[in-house]
Design a protein that fits this description.
This protein is α/β, with parallel strands linked by helices and 372 residues long. It is built from 11 helices and 13 strands. It has an 8-stranded mixed sheet with strand order 6-12-11-7-10-9-8-13, sandwiched between helices. The protein has a 5-stranded parallel sheet with strand order 2-1-3-4-5, with helices on both faces. It is globular, with a radius of gyration of 21 Å.
């Protein structure tokens, strides 16, 4: 866990975060890599960079306690000259912190800059090491495409995304049903379109990418909100039965009335895939917490599951993500193709764009295929 671990044979990683405070993503991911939450890490954090130091910063105390240098730049953290030399992996957590928003309301986290500085440092050293970057690649799809292209050109093992797709999906169902999936509806929550919508789109994609033939890309995206979402349901534009099936897997949800009466102003996201399959996200303001989904395949079979995430500390679903980060660093084999993260980033950007413009948007840039 400390800089003194050099020479032990364990993989050594640098952590670059926007901020490290209580209940931030740095706390629940990097904190585990430092041995918090009762977690026994399989890699050693030997250098830390923090882009911001809030009043409630936790990084300085943790670094002092564990003997880990905090470096003034990402370049220096990757070189780790006071920690035994260059690292074997980099963990980038560009989530939380005080950053400006653009005209669409997206927080302009510096994820491209953080990756770019990491890559420049690795290029100087002539090294190719695995990289994890938390959540979607960027608020700007042009930046995301650049990040993807740079990683692919270098052949760097990369893991992106969040913890939610890796949570337990309960109840279990026959996953062979996904081979001919035709439509999926994901239930989401929160008024935060980008930050929480991304999780829902990741869940959607981890279902849809498993159809026979693999992923073929997305041609059109639409997002709208308010009572018109229910009017569209009445017109048959999205499947009410899949919504009710997805809601049925929430263990503590009791629907005394139709959800349109209990949460009248949700957001609807509609995803049209290139092969004709459809995806929907209904993001409620207050009806539920956690994410769930229901899907229908070509034979008319329907199944549903809840993505079980813990709502309070210690947020155990982050333990599984942390294990995946460590496995990517130690084996150089990410658990899924990085194209999923590129596509879910693009879906998130398109959803925000459609909502901002008030109309559907065509997405030729999301001609992204992967899988079988």
């Amino acid at each position: 866990m400390s800089a003194g671990s050099y020479g032990t044979g364990r993989k050594r990683v640098a952590a670059a975060v926007t901020e490290y405070r209580f209940n931030s993503h740095a706390d629940v991911i990097l904190g585990r890599l430092l041995g918090d939450f009762g977690y026994t890490p399989a890699v050693d954090v030997v250098s830390i960079y923090t882009d911001q130091v809030p009043e409630a910063d936790m990084s300085r105390e943790a670094a002092a306690r564990l003997g880990i240098p905090i470096y003034p730049s990402i370049r220096e953290a990757v070189r780790a000259e006071r920690s035994g030399g260059p690292v074997d992996g980099v963990v980038i957590i560009g989530e939380h912190g005080s950053y400006p928003k653009n005209e669409k309301g997206q927080t302009m986290y510096p994820r491209r800059r953080m990756l770019e500085e990491t890559l420049l440092a690795l290029d100087e050293l002539g090294r190719n090491v695995p990289i994890f970057s938390d959540k979607h690649l960027s608020y700007d799809f042009r930046d995301a495409q650049w990040m993807y292209d740079q990683l692919k050109r270098r052949g760097i093992p990369f893991l992106g995304g969040s913890s939610i797709p890796h949570a337990d999906h309960v109840p279990a169902y026959d996953e062979r049903l996904l081979g001919t999936v035709r439509e999926t509806l994901v239930v989401s929550h929160s008024t935060l379109l980008e930050a929480y919508g991304f999780h829902a789109l990741e869940v959607l994609q981890c279902v849809h990418e498993r159809r026979r033939g693999g992923e073929t890309g997305v041609k059109r995206v639409a997002a709208t909100g308010g009572p018109g979402v229910w009017t569209a349901m009445d017109r048959g534009e999205w499947p009410e039965d899949l919504l009710l099936r997805a809601l049925s897997v929430y263990p503590d949800l009791r629907l005394a009335r139709h959800p349109r009466e209990m949460d009248p102003n949700p957001i609807l996201m509609t995803i049209e895939y290139a092969d004709g399959t459809k995806g929907y996200v209904v993001q409620f303001r207050s009806l539920v917490e956690q994410w769930a989904y229901a899907f229908r395949n070509a034979a008319g079979d329907v199944a549903a599951a809840l993505c079980v995430s813990q709502l309070d500390r210690p947020f155990d679903h982050f333990e599984r993500l942390t294990r995946l980060i460590e496995a990517t660093v130690t084996t150089r084999r990410p658990p899924f193709p990085m194209e999923r993260t590129l596509l879910t980033t693009g879906l998130t950007c398109a959803v925000v764009d459609s909502f901002h413009r008030g109309r559907p948007v065509d997405t030729p840039e999301l001609d992204i295929g992967y899988g079988e």
